[in-house]
């Protein structure tokens, strides 16, 4: 899949785990605009048919991942990427979910590195994980209190604007498990999830004005329903890449021009791309 590489460049595979080539193509200009001179990007789209004859699922190809079951099915279908650990320095799973393919690749990396200790390290993340960790770095801080020499956590929070209603509870659970553990209440720093009612594929086939309106209204609803100041909003779908303007409009509608302009908008595709490039350079 990959040709011989130079020692001063890093190869990063961006994985679209659904079969929509249109969605993969939408990612390319956004990522390439980063203009990293030391990174070669490869874009992978899920095969339309499972590569193995013993597939446990005979359903048709998935062009829009609309829930956790779809995430699991597409992880199975895309598992062949684990055969290419030796060819790439990092892997970005471009599906905004707790996608099992991230863990599958991480396991394959650990196995490969266990027998190739003389090679540079390899990395993987998903756009969901990248957006959460980036948001936490943007909002998390401690401040002094009115009590002398005492401190407290700043009450800012982050939230997610995503597609269909099926993701509301699923992403809430995923953030909670990631930050505080399974079976716990959502952390105070999480403002929740607002949905547009559109699937990932519908984002590209619905009138752009309607898409913008729905994203803006979902964002405004997220901010207005939060008890704390929502200092960061995550774009909760790979198909929302480049749709920052609609989110900004919702922030300003909820908070006004001054405070609405303060909200950080986190694109998981860009956050993950930057994180992986930095990991490759740093060799953590």
UniProtKB/TrEMBL annotation:
Q: From which domain of life does this come? A: Eukaryota
User: What GO molecular function annotation could you give as one example from this UniProt entry?
Assistant: amino-acid racemase activity
Q: Map out region (Disordered) in residue numbers.
A: 45-69
One Pfam family name is Asp_Glu_race
Q: Which family does it belong to?
A: Belongs to the HyuE racemase family.
What is the name of the protein in this document? Asp/Glu/hydantoin racemase
Q: Which stretches are transmembrane?
A: none
